[in-house]
Amino acid sequence: MPSTLLFTNATLVTLGAQPQVVHDAACWIENGQVRLFGPSRDVLEVAPPIARLDLQGRVLMPGQINAHDHLYSAFARGISMKDEPPQNFLQILQRLWWRLDQALQPEDVYLSGLLGFSEAVQRGVTTVIDHHASPGCIEGSLDRLAEASLQVGLRACLCYETTDRHGAQGARQGVAENLRFANRCTSERNGKLSPAMGLHASITVDPETLQLALKEWPADIPVHVHVAEDRCDVDHSLEKYGKPPLQRLLDEGLRGREVWAAHCIHLRPHEMELLAQPGLTVMHNPRSNLNNAVGCAPVRKMLQMGIPVALGTDGMSQDPAEDARTLSVIHKHQAADPQSFSYDDIYQVAFVHPARLASRRFGLQLGEIACGAAADLMVLDYDPPTPLHSGNFLGHWLFGLSMAPVWGTWVAGDCVFLKGQVAGIDSAHLKTRCREAAEKLWERW
Ligand SMILES: [Zn+2]
After folding, report:
1. Is 268 helix (H, G, I), strand (E, B) or coil?
2. Where are the beta strands (DSSP E) in 233-335?
3. Structural domains in the chain?
């Protein structure tokens, strides 16, 4: 599929600050960007004779952005626990994730990435922000993930989860892996890879490790860390540092930096004020929070205070739309008030803030169809059973459009998924390799 292309006969949804729906639309993409879009008659009048793709009325809109993911969790699907079932979040970490990540080998990291990124583009995702852990093979692990993301063709912002769980040497290796990968991204500048400094959470990152991580870390590259996901993180921080985790992390060097703080559920009242510092974004993962029974982040209040909140899947699946649908119900349920979380709130968290965050990281206009924006697009097989217009896009997204089959996905103007096929990937062969890898992993974890 050529990267210069004219989509015709589209139902176009722009997203952006105010989503516009244009029926009988065309969109001309060139050199990885949107050159022109709008009513067909306007675009066709000026577009040169280039390849056309008739969408037959399908919905053309910006690709999805997943603001917080853990691709390494792929092989947990269907796994049997080896210990007693976990009774709380810390035990979920100890008995599932910290056992599983330790058993990962480089090939598992690559395959879990290839599987996850493939599943992502099949759901129209064009950018994934991942938080990776494989303590048994730290060095080079982000390269294995990057290899997978480049093979699939989507944009990936990667970091390694620095932690003291494996002693000072493991912590040093985690920091080094983040630095090494950041240097690689800086020298390559390929537009599809971006780094962050990964830290697990206050509960497993000692002050010395935090200082080591920040010492050489460039101030303009974000720090991606879990904050107050469960009460255990808060209790540990209060006991050890005499202050809650967000305050502790800010006091020990994160203040003034770009910080991506995943979860932020159990915050003290004064920490809400601390969240409102420039450069801090909360990554909200509602399905994961429900699944781990850790609580519900005060997202409405965060938005009221002007704190950016961006939606992620936290490894639950590769489809942020599922979290958008959960987002639309969890906060109303929590507040026992159907008016407590508006469509605008949902739109900000599901679309506006992820787009801003990803645009900043990649230095491109992402998450919006606009002239000059990146041609990161998805096409959905959706024939609306009720009228679809600029004023009711979100209602369609939550109750139909987001569940519609994805017909095609483009990243930087290149087709990465079309009609059930991920470009350049033999899906059946990949699944065979994954099953074999998972079986071995399940034996040794
Ligand atoms: Zn996470």
Report:
1. coil
2. 259-263, 280-284, 309-311
3. 5-63+366-420 (2.30.40.10), 64-362 (3.20.20.140)
User: How many whole angstroms from 187 Cα to the centroid of ligand 1?
Assistant: 28
d(CA 245, ligand 1 centre) in Å: 16
Residue 137 to residue 103: CA distance in whole angstroms: 9
Q: Hey, how many other C-beta atoms are within 10 angstroms of the C-beta on 186?
A: 11
Q: Could you give the CA distance from residue 101 to residue 83 in angstroms, rounded to a whole number?
A: 16
The answer to whether 145 touches 183, Cβ cutoff 8 Å, is no
b or e along 396-424 (b: 16 or more beta carbons within 10 Å of the residue's beta carbon)?
Answer: bbbebbbebebbbbbbbbbbbbbeeebbe
Mean pLDDT over each residue of the chain, to the nearest integer? 96
Confidence grade of residue 269 (pLDDT, cut at 50, 70, 90): confident
Q: How far apart are the C-alpha atoms of 245 and 99, rounded to whole Å?
A: 24
Segment 201-215, tens digit of pLDDT = 999 999 999 999 999
**Could you tell me if 131 and 174 are in contact, meaning their C-beta atoms sit under 8 angstroms apart?**
no
SS (H, E, C) 149-176: HHHHCCEEEECECECCCCHHHHHHHHHH
User: What's the 243 CA to ligand 1 centre distance in angstroms?
Assistant: 22
Neighbours of 238 (CB within 10 A): 15
68 Cα: distance to centroid of ligand 1 (angstroms): 6
What does residue 233 show for φ and ψ, rounded to 5 degrees? Answer: -65, -40
For residue 437, the SS3 value is helix
Is 102's pLDDT higher than 80? yes
Separation of alpha carbons 85 and 94, rounded Å: 11
Q: Is residue 1 scored above 80 in pLDDT?
A: no
The pLDDT value recorded for residue 445 is 86
Could you report the per-residue pLDDT of 54-82, keeping only the tens digit for each? 999 999 999 999 999 999 999 999 998 88
- pTM for the predicted model, two decimal places: 0.97
With CA atoms as reference, report the closest residue to 431 among 132, 127, 119, 81.
119
Q: Give the C-alpha separation, 91 to 70, whole Å.
A: 18
Q: How far is the CA of 351 from the centre of ligand 1 (A)?
A: 19
Give the C-alpha separation, 69 to 131, whole Å: 6
Q: How far is the CA of 314 from the centre of ligand 1 (A)?
A: 5
Q: Which tens digit of pLDDT belongs to each residue from 235-263?
A: 999 999 999 999 999 999 999 999 999 99
